[in-house]
Structures are given as structure tokens and as C-alpha cells.
Design a protein that fits this description.
single chain, mainly alpha, 2 helices, 0% strand
């Protein structure tokens, strides 16, 4: 049994369901595809998405601390470009 199967991965939704102009949720930072059918996605995919969200939050928070306005974001490492690459 894979260790990921032993633990339920939380849904990152925080109830702030508002999209920006590029389709990313302002609350949880997920794309539409990442949000769609969250509970039906394989554990490995949900785990990968959660790791992407950690990177997006870190970049967003670093940009805010540096006083930079929200801007179009760089790509996550190893994925397609998205808007949370602060």
C-alpha cells in the first residue's frame, strides 16, 4: 500500500471562490482543471496539485512582501505556465 493511500488529502478550497482573469481561484490558487472533480482525482494527482499550490503561495507571498503588485505569473517548475508565478 502506498503511503499516500493512508491519508486523506485535504481539499484546499477556503470558500473564496472568485476567479481572476486567467481562471485561477483567488482563494485556493487552483486552475479550473485543478478544481474540477477534486474528490475524484487520483491521490497522486491531488498530491501534485497541493505541491504546486505551495509554490504558488510562496511566490505570491514573496511578491507581496517585496511590495510588488500581483502580476502575471511564471510557470511552476515542471508544469505549464500559470498565473501564480510571483
Amino acid at each position: 500500500m502506498d503511503q499516500l493511500e493512508l491519508f486523506d488529502l485535504p481539499n484546499p478550497c477556503i470558500g473564496v471562490c472568485e476567479n481572476n482573469s486567467r481562471g485561477y481561484c483567488l482563494g485556493c490558487l487552483r486552475s479550473r482543471d485543478e478544481r474540477f472533480n477534486w474528490h475524484n482525482k487520483p491521490v497522486e494527482e491531488r498530491s501534485r496539485i497541493l505541491k504546486l499550490l505551495e509554490n504558488r503561495r510562496a511566490r505570491r507571498d514573496a511578491a507581496r512582501l517585496a511590495g510588488k503588485p500581483d502580476q502575471s505569473l511564471e510557470a511552476d517548475i515542471g508544469s505549464t505556465p500559470d498565473m501564480f508565478g510571483f
